Amino acid sequence: AFILIKVSPVKRIQVYDRIRELAVSRAFRIAGEVDALIVVERENLDEILKKLYAVDGIQDTRSYVTIETIK
């Protein structure tokens, strides 16, 4: 699953530090409408989202669950 995260500009450093502590497959800082992308196992999605909701500085999250790997 993929989690897209919008971060408050003044809290970026603290939020990225908290993301580094999470048990996720991969995490990326990205440019665009959102600031970070986290890759998690589907069975861990709810647990990771609960932890993210507790992080001060996260303004919004969007989650996408993969249906099939194309390539």
Verbal overview:
- The protein is of the alpha+beta class and 71 residues long.
- The protein has two helices and four strands; from the N terminus they run βαββαβ.
- It has a four-stranded antiparallel beta sheet with strand order 2-3-1-4, covered by helices on one side.
- The longest helix has 10 residues.
- The protein is globular, with a radius of gyration of 12 Å.
- The two termini are 16 Å apart.
Q: Which structural class do you get from the secondary structure elements?
A: alpha+beta
Number of strands: 4
- Which sequence of SSEs, written as H and E, runs from N to C? EHEEHE
Strand content: 25-35%
Distance between the amino and carboxyl termini: 16 Å
Shape by Cα distribution: globular
Cα Rg? 12 Å
Mean pLDDT: 96
In summary, what is this structure?
The chain has 71 residues and is an alpha+beta fold.
What topology emerges from the helices and strands here?
Blueprint: E1 2-7, H1 12-21, E2 26-29, E3 36-39, H2 45-53, E4 58-64
Antiparallel strand pairs: 1-3, 1-4, 2-3
What structural keywords apply?
2 helices; alpha+beta; 71 residues
